[in-house]
UniProtKB/TrEMBL annotation:
Domain AMP-dependent synthetase/ligase: 34-127, 197-372
Designated name of the protein: AMP-dependent synthetase/ligase domain-containing protein
Domain AMP-binding enzyme C-terminal span(s) in chain numbering: 418-493
A Pfam family annotated for this UniProt entry: AMP-binding_C
Length: 509
């Protein structure tokens, strides 16, 4: 029988709060090197490490003066902004619970989140103000508790157990240090080297309200003293211009961006110089070998090696990943991260045989406490002995590397996330999940689609929409099924295991 696989590493996590971990003492010298800059206006909208701490302290003082008490929630509703790190750290410094919301949500969706978490304050941008006020009215939250910030008044006027919009509770001291300490344990002089070389630069292309970006750009980059350029929103040509302009060295991307880069004809023409990039990390969804090789081929052979991982909000965005000193195997997400253990389980909750696919169960000190005020969902996600049911299906090869299961059509791997992203581009599609269904001893992609209210569309319309945009192997030959909802964890992750069970039983989702 297979046994749980424990990580090769045990990393000591400092038992300190996040501000102390990031900055040391409140008055320790930090210097005037660049910490963050707005990619569109880097000269006017920028801050040093000293300013980052100072402005965070000012925000914390302002929140406490306004009545924030220990454990109170503060919601931020904003697109990407250079002040995002200030807000997340400032809330934590004030002993509040930082909580982000999707800036693209409507007032009713935001009101639902507010009703669950009952925040003391909302910090919103001018763009999201109207939505915030409407939502506040719906839940009886006074407008005097909604503060508008921009790039000047917030600075002058002048945690978190919760992460992202999901109401996931995390241990306060675990959010930042885990991955940083892992990398630094392999090279204890990493921060000193990066500061001395003065050549590490990151570019934020992903939404800062998402837990993944929170970990990378509001904690890890700060701990390592790596300057970051914040894009207000992703657009491929603007991203490539920024890579060239700022000589970006490390990218943290999601698979749709990687795929878009491989298909971008202008990039292949040599218009943009991306030679400064030496590292790429892919997260949030599986990335198959084919797009990995295509992406790596944008650089000279041997220059680029994509390292992808598997993570979730429930695990502080840290579950399976690659040893930074090894060359990653394309298509694999790596091995258990430090202090963690993994096992693969079948539908009867038995461990699968070596080489077989099963649901990933994960246990480690970075697992969430639970879903905010939702004991039922917490009990369904976490076993009594501390295992987190991730909902992801994977297999482990003979070398110990994990591969998140994809659809295999005629021996060719098809990436569900690519098709799901494409389906969401259809104006009549509210939500979608793509899985493989077996027939005639082969596997075929099937789309489960939630149609937008009031939309008039047929399954044939959806199939044809995809048919015209992908190669033959990726077409929805397994069919299109309309459904009322896509099974998801409270964090928003698609529960593919639940959908597979429904397929096997020929029942509705």
């Amino acid at each position: 029988m297979a046994m749980p696989q424990k990580s090769r590493w045990s990393v000591s996590v400092p038992e300190v709060d996040i501000p102390t971990y990031l900055f040391g003492s409140p008055t320790a010298p930090l210097g005037d090197a660049l910490a963050f800059a707005d990619a569109e206006d880097p000269e006017a909208l920028r801050m040093t490490w000293t300013e980052l701490r100072l402005w965070s302290q000012r925000l914390a003082a302002g929140l406490q003066a306004a009545g924030l008490r220990e454990g109170d929630r503060v919601v931020i509703l904003s697109g990407n902004d250079v002040l995002f790190p200030v807000i997340s750290i400032g809330v934590i410094m004030a002993s509040g619970i930082y909580q982000s919301a999707n800036p693209h949500c409507n007032a009713r969706e935001l009101a639902y989140q507010l009703s669950l978490t009952t925040p003391r304050f909302m910090l919103v941008s001018e763009v999201t103000l109207a939505c915030a006020l409407d939502a506040a009215t719906m839940v009886g939250m006074g407008w005097e508790r909604v503060f508008v910030f921009n790039d000047a008044p917030l600075i002058k006027d002048g945690g978190g157990d919760d992460n992202s919009k999901t109401g996931v509770k995390h241990w306060k001291h675990l959010l930042a240090p885990k991955e940083t300490d892992f990398v630094m344990s392999l090279d204890p002089n990493l921060r000193t080297k990066e500061l001395a070389a003065n050549n590490s630069r990151w570019l934020c292309t992903i939404p800062l309200y998402h837990g993944l970006a929170l970990c990378y750009f509001c904690t890890i980059s700060i701990a390592r003293r790596v300057p970051s350029y914040i894009m207000r929103h992703y657009e491929i040509d603007r991203m490539l211009e920024n890579i060239q302009k700022f000589r970006i060295t490390e990218l943290h991307l999601v698979p749709p961006i990687i795929v878009a880069m491989t298909k971008h004809s202008v990039l292949k023409s040599g218009k943009y110089d991306i030679s400064s990039v030496t590292k790429t990390f892919s997260c949030a969804a599986p990335l198959g070998p084919e797009p990995t090789f295509q992406y790596e081929s944008l650089w000279p052979k041997g220059h680029m090696n994509v390292k992808q991982g598997l993570a979730s909000t429930e695990s502080c965005c840290n579950t399976i990943g690659w040893d930074p000193t090894l060359t990653a195997v394309a298509g694999s997400v790596g091995e258990p991260m430090p202090n963690c253990e993994i096992k693969l389980m079948d539908d009867e909750e038995n461990e699968v045989a070596p080489g077989q696919s099963g649901e990933i169960w994960f246990r480690g000190p970075n697992i969430m406490k639970g879903y905010w005020q939702n004991n039922k969902a917490t009990g369904e996600a976490i076993t009594p002995d501390g295992w987190l049911r991730t909902g992801d299906v994977a297999r482990q090869d003979e070398n110990g590397w994990y591969y998140v299961e994809m659809i295999k059509v005629k021996g060719v791997q098809v990436w569900p996330a690519e098709l799901e992203a494409l389906l969401l581009d259809h104006p009549a599609v509210n939500d979608a999940a793509v899985l493989g269904v077996r027939k005639d001893d082969d596997e075929y992609p099937r789309a489960y689609v939630v149609v937008a209210p009031g939309a008039s569309v047929s399954v044939d319309d959806i199939a044809q929409f995809v048919h015209n945009k992908v190669s033959t192997i990726k077409r929805l030959t397994g069919g299109v099924v309309f459904t009322d909802n896509i099974p998801k964890a409270p964090s928003g992750k698609i529960l593919r295991r639940v959908i597979r069970d429904a397929i096997a039983k020929n029942s509705k989702l």
